[in-house]
Protein backbone atom coordinates (compact mmCIF):
# COMPACT_ATOMS: atom_id res chain seq x y z
CA UNK A 1 0.00 0.00 0.00
CA UNK A 2 2.69 2.45 0.95
CA UNK A 3 4.46 1.51 -2.31
CA UNK A 4 1.28 2.31 -4.18
CA UNK A 5 1.14 5.71 -2.47
CA UNK A 6 4.75 6.45 -3.36
CA UNK A 7 4.05 5.45 -6.96
CA UNK A 8 1.14 7.81 -7.46
CA UNK A 9 1.37 10.03 -10.50
CA UNK A 10 -1.27 12.05 -12.32
CA UNK A 11 -2.29 10.29 -15.52
CA UNK A 12 -3.22 12.59 -18.39
CA UNK A 13 -3.57 10.14 -21.29
CA UNK A 14 -5.98 7.22 -21.32
CA UNK A 15 -6.65 4.14 -23.40
CA UNK A 16 -9.96 4.03 -25.23
CA UNK A 17 -11.26 1.37 -22.92
CA UNK A 18 -14.17 1.59 -20.46
CA UNK A 19 -13.95 0.85 -16.74
CA UNK A 20 -15.96 -2.23 -15.79
CA UNK A 21 -19.08 -1.23 -13.78
CA UNK A 22 -18.33 -3.74 -10.98
CA UNK A 23 -14.79 -2.43 -10.63
CA UNK A 24 -16.03 1.15 -10.56
CA UNK A 25 -18.54 0.30 -7.84
CA UNK A 26 -15.87 -1.41 -5.78
CA UNK A 27 -13.63 1.66 -6.11
CA UNK A 28 -16.41 4.03 -5.07
CA UNK A 29 -17.26 1.76 -2.18
CA UNK A 30 -13.61 1.97 -1.10
CA UNK A 31 -14.09 5.74 -1.14
CA UNK A 32 -16.95 5.49 1.33
CA UNK A 33 -14.78 3.50 3.77
CA UNK A 34 -12.80 6.63 4.61
CA UNK A 35 -13.38 8.17 8.02
CA UNK A 36 -16.20 10.68 7.99
CA UNK A 37 -17.79 12.98 10.52
CA UNK A 38 -20.32 11.22 12.73
CA UNK A 39 -20.69 8.56 10.02
CA UNK A 40 -23.19 10.95 8.45
CA UNK A 41 -21.65 10.55 4.99
CA UNK A 42 -22.48 14.08 3.92
CA UNK A 43 -21.14 13.59 0.42
CA UNK A 44 -22.20 12.36 -3.01
CA UNK A 45 -20.39 11.25 -6.12
CA UNK A 46 -21.60 12.12 -9.60
CA UNK A 47 -20.30 9.62 -12.16
CA UNK A 48 -20.18 10.92 -15.74
CA UNK A 49 -19.56 8.46 -18.53
CA UNK A 50 -21.80 9.55 -21.40
CA UNK A 51 -19.97 11.15 -24.29
CA UNK A 52 -22.11 14.30 -24.44
CA UNK A 53 -21.78 14.88 -20.73
CA UNK A 54 -18.04 14.39 -20.82
CA UNK A 55 -17.78 16.86 -23.66
CA UNK A 56 -19.59 19.45 -21.60
CA UNK A 57 -17.39 18.74 -18.59
CA UNK A 58 -14.33 19.00 -20.80
CA UNK A 59 -15.41 22.50 -21.85
CA UNK A 60 -15.82 23.53 -18.20
CA UNK A 61 -12.39 22.13 -17.36
CA UNK A 62 -10.78 24.59 -19.79
CA UNK A 63 -10.66 21.86 -22.45
CA UNK A 64 -7.90 19.80 -20.90
CA UNK A 65 -7.57 16.89 -23.36
CA UNK A 66 -7.50 14.18 -20.68
CA UNK A 67 -11.05 15.09 -19.63
CA UNK A 68 -12.42 14.23 -23.03
CA UNK A 69 -10.32 11.10 -23.31
CA UNK A 70 -10.92 9.46 -19.93
CA UNK A 71 -13.93 7.14 -19.87
CA UNK A 72 -15.00 8.25 -16.38
CA UNK A 73 -15.31 11.67 -14.76
CA UNK A 74 -16.12 11.82 -11.05
CA UNK A 75 -17.40 14.85 -9.18
CA UNK A 76 -17.06 14.55 -5.43
CA UNK A 77 -19.63 16.72 -3.72
CA UNK A 78 -20.26 17.96 -0.24
CA UNK A 79 -23.89 16.90 0.25
CA UNK A 80 -25.97 18.27 3.11
CA UNK A 81 -29.15 17.81 1.09
CA UNK A 82 -29.61 14.07 1.55
CA UNK A 83 -28.95 14.17 5.28
CA UNK A 84 -31.32 17.13 5.73
CA UNK A 85 -34.05 15.40 3.72
CA UNK A 86 -33.67 12.36 5.93
CA UNK A 87 -33.92 14.52 9.07
CA UNK A 88 -37.08 16.26 7.89
CA UNK A 89 -38.63 12.93 6.94
CA UNK A 90 -37.90 11.68 10.48
CA UNK A 91 -39.33 14.48 12.60
CA UNK A 92 -35.91 16.05 13.15
CA UNK A 93 -34.81 19.64 12.40
CA UNK A 94 -31.56 19.78 10.46
CA UNK A 95 -29.27 22.80 10.85
CA UNK A 96 -26.38 21.93 8.59
CA UNK A 97 -26.43 24.62 5.91
CA UNK A 98 -23.74 26.62 7.64
CA UNK A 99 -20.03 27.22 7.31
CA UNK A 100 -19.06 24.48 9.77
CA UNK A 101 -20.87 21.78 7.86
CA UNK A 102 -19.88 23.11 4.48
CA UNK A 103 -16.29 22.85 5.68
CA UNK A 104 -16.79 19.45 7.32
CA UNK A 105 -18.48 18.00 4.25
CA UNK A 106 -15.70 19.41 2.06
CA UNK A 107 -13.09 17.60 4.14
CA UNK A 108 -15.09 14.36 4.22
CA UNK A 109 -15.64 14.45 0.45
CA UNK A 110 -11.90 15.00 0.02
CA UNK A 111 -10.89 12.06 2.20
CA UNK A 112 -13.34 9.91 0.28
CA UNK A 113 -11.91 11.02 -3.05
CA UNK A 114 -8.38 10.15 -1.99
CA UNK A 115 -9.50 6.61 -1.12
CA UNK A 116 -11.07 6.42 -4.57
CA UNK A 117 -7.79 7.57 -6.15
CA UNK A 118 -5.80 4.89 -4.36
CA UNK A 119 -8.31 2.09 -4.89
CA UNK A 120 -8.36 2.98 -8.60
CA UNK A 121 -4.59 2.89 -8.82
CA UNK A 122 -4.53 -0.39 -6.95
CA UNK A 123 -6.74 -1.80 -9.72
CA UNK A 124 -4.35 -0.64 -12.43
CA UNK A 125 -6.28 2.50 -13.34
CA UNK A 126 -4.82 5.98 -13.48
CA UNK A 127 -6.38 9.17 -12.16
CA UNK A 128 -5.99 12.89 -12.46
CA UNK A 129 -7.52 15.43 -10.08
CA UNK A 130 -8.96 18.49 -11.80
CA UNK A 131 -8.58 21.65 -9.72
CA UNK A 132 -10.55 23.52 -12.37
CA UNK A 133 -13.78 22.34 -10.69
CA UNK A 134 -13.21 25.05 -8.07
CA UNK A 135 -12.81 27.90 -10.58
CA UNK A 136 -16.40 28.32 -11.70
CA UNK A 137 -18.37 25.96 -9.49
CA UNK A 138 -21.77 27.26 -10.57
CA UNK A 139 -21.22 25.92 -14.07
CA UNK A 140 -20.72 22.44 -12.60
CA UNK A 141 -23.68 22.94 -10.27
CA UNK A 142 -25.85 23.75 -13.27
CA UNK A 143 -24.55 21.03 -15.56
CA UNK A 144 -24.80 18.30 -12.92
CA UNK A 145 -28.05 19.74 -11.54
CA UNK A 146 -26.81 19.90 -7.98
CA UNK A 147 -29.60 21.07 -5.67
CA UNK A 148 -29.21 23.41 -2.70
CA UNK A 149 -26.99 21.87 -0.04
CA UNK A 150 -24.77 20.14 -2.59
CA UNK A 151 -21.43 21.57 -3.67
CA UNK A 152 -18.72 20.29 -6.03
CA UNK A 153 -15.51 19.87 -4.01
CA UNK A 154 -13.18 17.85 -6.20
CA UNK A 155 -13.22 16.30 -9.64
CA UNK A 156 -11.20 13.48 -11.09
CA UNK A 157 -10.92 11.59 -14.34
CA UNK A 158 -10.04 7.93 -14.33
CA UNK A 159 -9.32 5.21 -16.83
CA UNK A 160 -6.62 2.86 -18.01
CA UNK A 161 -3.35 4.79 -18.52
CA UNK A 162 -1.94 5.14 -22.00
CA UNK A 163 1.81 5.17 -21.46
CA UNK A 164 3.82 5.99 -18.38
CA UNK A 165 3.88 9.25 -16.51
CA UNK A 166 6.60 10.96 -14.52
CA UNK A 167 6.72 11.08 -10.76
CA UNK A 168 6.66 14.75 -9.75
CA UNK A 169 9.10 16.08 -7.19
CA UNK A 170 8.16 17.15 -3.69
CA UNK A 171 9.71 19.66 -1.34
CA UNK A 172 11.84 18.04 1.38
CA UNK A 173 9.68 16.76 4.22
CA UNK A 174 11.40 18.96 6.81
CA UNK A 175 9.91 21.96 5.01
CA UNK A 176 6.39 20.78 5.77
CA UNK A 177 6.73 19.36 9.27
CA UNK A 178 6.76 21.24 12.55
CA UNK A 179 7.36 19.67 15.92
CA UNK A 180 5.10 20.68 18.81
CA UNK A 181 4.65 24.24 17.52
CA UNK A 182 4.71 25.94 14.15
CA UNK A 183 8.15 27.44 13.71
CA UNK A 184 7.88 30.24 11.20
CA UNK A 185 10.33 30.21 8.32
CA UNK A 186 13.27 32.58 8.08
CA UNK A 187 15.09 33.51 4.89
CA UNK A 188 17.53 30.64 5.23
CA UNK A 189 14.73 28.10 5.75
CA UNK A 190 12.95 29.21 2.58
CA UNK A 191 16.18 29.06 0.58
CA UNK A 192 16.92 25.56 1.86
CA UNK A 193 13.40 24.18 1.31
CA UNK A 194 13.09 25.42 -2.27
CA UNK A 195 16.76 25.03 -3.27
CA UNK A 196 16.58 21.66 -5.00
CA UNK A 197 13.39 22.47 -6.89
CA UNK A 198 14.74 25.82 -7.99
CA UNK A 199 17.94 24.32 -9.31
CA UNK A 200 16.29 21.51 -11.27
CA UNK A 201 16.48 21.15 -15.01
CA UNK A 202 12.67 21.45 -15.14
CA UNK A 203 12.79 24.84 -13.46
CA UNK A 204 15.52 26.05 -15.80
CA UNK A 205 13.30 25.12 -18.76
CA UNK A 206 10.23 26.77 -17.17
CA UNK A 207 12.08 30.04 -16.62
CA UNK A 208 13.26 30.07 -20.21
CA UNK A 209 9.89 29.23 -21.71
CA UNK A 210 8.06 31.75 -19.52
CA UNK A 211 10.82 34.33 -19.60
CA UNK A 212 10.85 34.75 -15.85
CA UNK A 213 13.64 35.29 -13.36
CA UNK A 214 12.28 33.12 -10.55
CA UNK A 215 10.09 30.04 -10.32
CA UNK A 216 7.81 31.86 -7.89
CA UNK A 217 7.04 34.38 -10.65
CA UNK A 218 5.88 31.53 -12.90
CA UNK A 219 3.24 30.83 -10.24
CA UNK A 220 2.23 34.39 -9.41
CA UNK A 221 2.32 35.76 -12.96
CA UNK A 222 1.56 32.83 -15.25
CA UNK A 223 -0.12 29.93 -13.49
CA UNK A 224 -2.14 31.56 -10.72
CA UNK A 225 -2.02 35.33 -11.23
CA UNK A 226 -3.74 37.71 -8.82
CA UNK A 227 -6.51 38.71 -11.17
CA UNK A 228 -7.53 35.11 -11.90
CA UNK A 229 -7.31 34.23 -8.20
CA UNK A 230 -9.61 37.11 -7.36
CA UNK A 231 -12.13 36.29 -10.07
CA UNK A 232 -12.23 32.58 -9.24
CA UNK A 233 -12.29 33.23 -5.53
CA UNK A 234 -15.31 35.49 -5.93
CA UNK A 235 -17.06 32.89 -8.10
CA UNK A 236 -16.31 30.15 -5.57
CA UNK A 237 -17.61 32.26 -2.71
CA UNK A 238 -20.79 33.23 -4.51
CA UNK A 239 -21.41 29.62 -5.48
CA UNK A 240 -20.96 28.49 -1.87
CA UNK A 241 -23.38 31.19 -0.67
CA UNK A 242 -25.93 30.21 -3.28
CA UNK A 243 -25.73 26.45 -2.74
CA UNK A 244 -25.72 26.74 1.05
CA UNK A 245 -28.32 29.52 1.21
CA UNK A 246 -25.99 31.86 3.10
CA UNK A 247 -26.27 35.55 3.62
CA UNK A 248 -22.77 36.42 2.38
CA UNK A 249 -21.88 38.52 5.42
CA UNK A 250 -22.95 35.80 7.84
CA UNK A 251 -22.39 32.27 6.57
CA UNK A 252 -23.28 30.61 9.84
CA UNK B 1 -4.25 -1.82 -0.65
CA UNK B 2 -7.93 -2.00 -1.35
CA UNK B 3 -8.16 -4.58 1.47
CA UNK B 4 -6.43 -2.11 3.75
CA UNK B 5 -8.97 0.55 2.79
CA UNK B 6 -11.88 -1.80 3.49
CA UNK B 7 -10.35 -2.69 6.84
CA UNK B 8 -10.07 0.86 8.08
CA UNK B 9 -11.57 1.52 11.49
CA UNK B 10 -11.09 4.38 13.92
CA UNK B 11 -8.84 3.32 16.77
CA UNK B 12 -9.61 4.91 20.13
CA UNK B 13 -7.31 2.99 22.49
CA UNK B 14 -3.56 2.83 22.11
CA UNK B 15 -0.65 0.90 23.57
CA UNK B 16 1.83 2.87 25.65
CA UNK B 17 4.43 2.58 22.95
CA UNK B 18 6.01 5.35 20.87
CA UNK B 19 6.07 5.49 17.09
CA UNK B 20 9.60 5.16 15.70
CA UNK B 21 10.78 8.50 14.23
CA UNK B 22 11.86 6.94 10.91
CA UNK B 23 8.48 5.26 10.53
CA UNK B 24 6.67 8.49 11.32
CA UNK B 25 8.74 10.35 8.72
CA UNK B 26 8.01 7.72 6.11
CA UNK B 27 4.29 8.00 6.87
CA UNK B 28 4.32 11.78 6.60
CA UNK B 29 6.29 11.52 3.39
CA UNK B 30 3.58 9.22 2.04
CA UNK B 31 1.15 12.00 2.92
CA UNK B 32 3.01 14.45 0.72
CA UNK B 33 2.81 12.08 -2.27
CA UNK B 34 -0.91 12.82 -2.64
CA UNK B 35 -1.98 14.96 -5.57
CA UNK B 36 -1.89 18.64 -4.76
CA UNK B 37 -2.75 21.82 -6.61
CA UNK B 38 0.05 22.98 -8.89
CA UNK B 39 2.50 20.98 -6.76
CA UNK B 40 2.55 24.02 -4.50
CA UNK B 41 2.15 21.91 -1.36
CA UNK B 42 0.22 24.59 0.49
CA UNK B 43 -0.01 22.57 3.68
CA UNK B 44 1.93 21.85 6.85
CA UNK B 45 1.80 19.15 9.49
CA UNK B 46 2.30 19.87 13.18
CA UNK B 47 3.50 16.77 15.02
CA UNK B 48 2.80 16.78 18.76
CA UNK B 49 4.43 14.16 20.92
CA UNK B 50 5.42 15.91 24.16
CA UNK B 51 3.27 15.01 27.13
CA UNK B 52 2.42 18.59 28.12
CA UNK B 53 1.44 19.50 24.59
CA UNK B 54 -0.72 16.41 24.23
CA UNK B 55 -2.44 17.24 27.51
CA UNK B 56 -3.33 20.67 26.18
CA UNK B 57 -4.56 19.22 22.90
CA UNK B 58 -6.61 16.70 24.83
CA UNK B 59 -8.33 19.54 26.69
CA UNK B 60 -9.15 21.26 23.37
CA UNK B 61 -10.52 18.02 21.94
CA UNK B 62 -13.18 17.92 24.67
CA UNK B 63 -11.03 15.50 26.71
CA UNK B 64 -11.50 12.48 24.49
CA UNK B 65 -9.38 9.82 26.26
CA UNK B 66 -7.69 8.58 23.07
CA UNK B 67 -6.04 11.99 22.56
CA UNK B 68 -4.17 11.73 25.84
CA UNK B 69 -3.29 8.12 25.26
CA UNK B 70 -1.99 8.18 21.70
CA UNK B 71 1.75 8.90 21.42
CA UNK B 72 1.32 11.13 18.36
CA UNK B 73 -1.12 13.92 17.51
CA UNK B 74 -1.03 15.37 14.01
CA UNK B 75 -2.57 18.66 12.94
CA UNK B 76 -2.92 19.00 9.18
CA UNK B 77 -2.95 22.64 8.22
CA UNK B 78 -3.74 24.64 5.12
CA UNK B 79 -0.56 26.71 4.77
CA UNK B 80 -0.43 29.71 2.47
CA UNK B 81 2.23 31.32 4.64
CA UNK B 82 5.24 29.33 3.45
CA UNK B 83 4.39 29.68 -0.22
CA UNK B 84 3.76 33.42 0.17
CA UNK B 85 7.07 33.89 2.03
CA UNK B 86 8.83 32.12 -0.80
CA UNK B 87 7.14 34.34 -3.39
CA UNK B 88 8.08 37.53 -1.58
CA UNK B 89 11.66 36.32 -1.22
CA UNK B 90 11.77 35.70 -4.98
CA UNK B 91 10.49 39.00 -6.33
CA UNK B 92 6.98 37.62 -6.86
CA UNK B 93 3.68 39.01 -5.47
CA UNK B 94 1.57 36.29 -3.86
CA UNK B 95 -2.23 36.66 -3.83
CA UNK B 96 -3.33 33.51 -2.06
CA UNK B 97 -5.02 34.74 1.11
CA UNK B 98 -8.46 34.42 -0.42
CA UNK B 99 -11.37 32.02 -0.30
CA UNK B 100 -10.25 30.04 -3.37
CA UNK B 101 -6.87 29.23 -1.90
CA UNK B 102 -8.20 28.66 1.58
CA UNK B 103 -10.54 26.10 0.02
CA UNK B 104 -7.87 24.62 -2.24
CA UNK B 105 -5.38 24.28 0.60
CA UNK B 106 -8.08 22.70 2.77
CA UNK B 107 -8.71 20.05 0.14
CA UNK B 108 -5.00 19.43 -0.44
CA UNK B 109 -4.33 19.11 3.30
CA UNK B 110 -7.24 16.65 3.51
CA UNK B 111 -5.96 14.43 0.68
CA UNK B 112 -2.56 14.44 2.32
CA UNK B 113 -4.03 13.44 5.67
CA UNK B 114 -5.85 10.49 4.12
CA UNK B 115 -2.60 9.20 2.65
CA UNK B 116 -1.09 9.52 6.12
CA UNK B 117 -3.99 7.53 7.59
CA UNK B 118 -3.53 4.70 5.11
CA UNK B 119 0.28 4.61 5.28
CA UNK B 120 0.00 4.48 9.07
CA UNK B 121 -2.47 1.60 8.93
CA UNK B 122 -0.28 -0.18 6.41
CA UNK B 123 2.50 -0.06 9.02
CA UNK B 124 0.27 -1.61 11.70
CA UNK B 125 -0.63 1.64 13.39
CA UNK B 126 -4.14 2.80 14.14
CA UNK B 127 -5.55 6.29 13.64
CA UNK B 128 -8.52 8.36 14.67
CA UNK B 129 -9.57 11.61 13.02
CA UNK B 130 -10.68 14.29 15.47
CA UNK B 131 -13.43 16.51 14.07
CA UNK B 132 -13.23 18.62 17.23
CA UNK B 133 -10.35 20.56 15.65
CA UNK B 134 -12.96 22.43 13.58
CA UNK B 135 -15.07 23.47 16.59
CA UNK B 136 -12.87 26.15 18.10
CA UNK B 137 -10.03 26.50 15.63
CA UNK B 138 -8.57 29.63 17.27
CA UNK B 139 -7.64 27.63 20.34
CA UNK B 140 -5.57 25.31 18.13
CA UNK B 141 -4.15 28.29 16.25
CA UNK B 142 -3.01 29.78 19.54
CA UNK B 143 -1.68 26.59 21.09
CA UNK B 144 0.26 25.55 17.99
CA UNK B 145 1.27 29.16 17.25
CA UNK B 146 -0.02 29.08 13.68
CA UNK B 147 0.78 32.37 11.93
CA UNK B 148 -1.47 34.21 9.49
CA UNK B 149 -2.08 32.13 6.37
CA UNK B 150 -2.08 28.86 8.30
CA UNK B 151 -5.29 27.13 9.34
CA UNK B 152 -5.96 23.80 11.11
CA UNK B 153 -8.00 21.60 8.77
CA UNK B 154 -7.89 18.13 10.27
CA UNK B 155 -6.41 16.44 13.31
CA UNK B 156 -5.58 12.83 13.94
CA UNK B 157 -4.08 10.73 16.69
CA UNK B 158 -1.99 7.71 15.85
CA UNK B 159 -0.25 4.91 17.65
CA UNK B 160 -0.25 1.16 18.06
CA UNK B 161 -3.81 -0.09 18.65
CA UNK B 162 -4.70 -1.62 21.98
CA UNK B 163 -7.31 -4.24 21.11
CA UNK B 164 -9.53 -4.53 18.09
CA UNK B 165 -12.15 -2.07 16.94
CA UNK B 166 -15.41 -2.54 15.10
CA UNK B 167 -15.92 -1.77 11.45
CA UNK B 168 -18.65 0.86 11.25
CA UNK B 169 -21.50 0.47 8.81
CA UNK B 170 -21.99 2.57 5.71
CA UNK B 171 -25.09 3.55 3.81
CA UNK B 172 -25.59 1.52 0.62
CA UNK B 173 -23.45 2.85 -2.21
CA UNK B 174 -26.45 3.55 -4.43
CA UNK B 175 -27.50 6.21 -1.92
CA UNK B 176 -24.32 8.20 -2.58
CA UNK B 177 -23.83 7.72 -6.30
CA UNK B 178 -25.53 9.59 -9.12
CA UNK B 179 -25.10 8.83 -12.80
CA UNK B 180 -24.60 11.75 -15.18
CA UNK B 181 -26.77 14.14 -13.16
CA UNK B 182 -27.74 14.50 -9.53
CA UNK B 183 -31.09 12.85 -9.10
CA UNK B 184 -32.75 14.34 -6.06
CA UNK B 185 -34.14 11.94 -3.47
CA UNK B 186 -37.81 11.25 -3.02
CA UNK B 187 -39.44 9.87 0.11
CA UNK B 188 -39.00 6.29 -1.05
CA UNK B 189 -35.31 6.80 -1.83
CA UNK B 190 -34.63 8.17 1.65
CA UNK B 191 -36.52 5.30 3.28
CA UNK B 192 -34.57 2.76 1.26
CA UNK B 193 -31.14 4.33 1.82
CA UNK B 194 -31.51 4.61 5.59
CA UNK B 195 -33.58 1.47 6.15
CA UNK B 196 -30.83 -0.95 7.15
CA UNK B 197 -29.11 1.52 9.45
CA UNK B 198 -32.39 2.46 11.10
CA UNK B 199 -33.31 -1.12 11.78
CA UNK B 200 -29.96 -2.14 13.24
CA UNK B 201 -29.47 -3.28 16.80
CA UNK B 202 -27.13 -0.33 17.35
CA UNK B 203 -29.86 2.13 16.39
CA UNK B 204 -32.36 0.43 18.68
CA UNK B 205 -29.92 0.86 21.57
CA UNK B 206 -29.20 4.48 20.66
CA UNK B 207 -32.89 5.35 20.62
CA UNK B 208 -33.37 3.76 24.01
CA UNK B 209 -30.35 5.40 25.62
CA UNK B 210 -31.18 8.83 24.17
CA UNK B 211 -34.93 8.44 24.54
CA UNK B 212 -35.60 9.47 20.95
CA UNK B 213 -38.09 8.29 18.39
CA UNK B 214 -35.84 8.46 15.33
CA UNK B 215 -32.13 8.12 14.68
CA UNK B 216 -32.15 11.48 12.89
CA UNK B 217 -33.22 13.10 16.16
CA UNK B 218 -30.16 11.65 17.88
CA UNK B 219 -28.11 13.67 15.39
CA UNK B 220 -30.10 16.89 15.41
CA UNK B 221 -30.84 16.98 19.14
CA UNK B 222 -27.96 15.16 20.82
CA UNK B 223 -24.87 14.89 18.68
CA UNK B 224 -24.94 17.99 16.50
CA UNK B 225 -27.75 20.23 17.76
CA UNK B 226 -28.55 23.54 16.06
CA UNK B 227 -27.20 25.74 18.82
CA UNK B 228 -23.83 24.00 18.87
CA UNK B 229 -23.65 24.04 15.08
CA UNK B 230 -24.29 27.77 15.07
CA UNK B 231 -21.74 28.51 17.78
CA UNK B 232 -19.03 26.35 16.20
CA UNK B 233 -19.82 27.59 12.73
CA UNK B 234 -19.40 31.19 13.87
CA UNK B 235 -16.12 30.34 15.61
CA UNK B 236 -14.84 28.55 12.50
CA UNK B 237 -15.78 31.44 10.27
CA UNK B 238 -14.17 34.03 12.53
CA UNK B 239 -11.02 31.94 12.78
CA UNK B 240 -10.82 31.63 8.99
CA UNK B 241 -11.29 35.40 8.59
CA UNK B 242 -8.61 36.11 11.17
CA UNK B 243 -6.06 33.65 9.84
CA UNK B 244 -6.61 34.59 6.22
CA UNK B 245 -6.91 38.33 6.86
CA UNK B 246 -10.38 38.50 5.29
CA UNK B 247 -12.94 41.21 5.56
CA UNK B 248 -15.85 38.98 6.65
CA UNK B 249 -18.24 40.31 4.03
CA UNK B 250 -15.76 39.83 1.23
CA UNK B 251 -13.44 36.87 1.67
CA UNK B 252 -11.93 37.11 -1.79
What would your notes on this structure say?
The structure is a homodimer. The first copy, chain A, has about 250 residues and is an alpha+beta fold. Chain A has a domain at about 1-165: NADH Oxidase, CATH 3.40.109. Helices cover about 50% and strands about 10% of the residues of chain A. Chain A is built from 11 helices and 5 strands, in the order ααβααβααβαββαααα. Chain A has a 4-stranded antiparallel β-sheet with strand order 1-2-4-3, sandwiched between helices. In chain A, α2 packs across α6 (about 100-120). Chain A starts with a helix and ends in an 8-residue tail after the last helix. In chain A, about 50% of the residues are buried. At the A-B interface, α1, α2, β1, α5 and α6 of A face α1, α2, β1, α5 and α6 of B. β5 (about 175-180) of chain A pairs parallel with β1 (about 45-50) of chain B.
Question: What attributes does this structure have?
Answer:
homodimer; 252 residues; NADH Oxidase; 4-stranded antiparallel sheet; 5 strands; globular
What share of residues are in beta strands of chain A? 5-15%
> Structural class, judged by helices and strands of chain A?
alpha+beta
> Which CATH architecture of one domain in chain A?
3-Layer(aba) Sandwich
Please bin the fraction of helical residues of chain A.
40-55%
CATH superfamily of one domain in chain A: NADH Oxidase
Strands side by side in the biggest sheet of chain A? 1-2-4-3
Would you count the extended β strands of chain A for me? 5
Amino acid sequence: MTDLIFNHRSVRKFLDCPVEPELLSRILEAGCRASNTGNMQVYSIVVSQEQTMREQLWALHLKQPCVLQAPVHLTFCADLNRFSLWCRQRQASPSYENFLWFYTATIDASLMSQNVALAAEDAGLGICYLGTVNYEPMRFVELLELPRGVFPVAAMVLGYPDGSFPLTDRLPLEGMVHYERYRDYDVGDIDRIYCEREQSEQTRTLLEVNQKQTLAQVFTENRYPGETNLRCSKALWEAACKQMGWKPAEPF
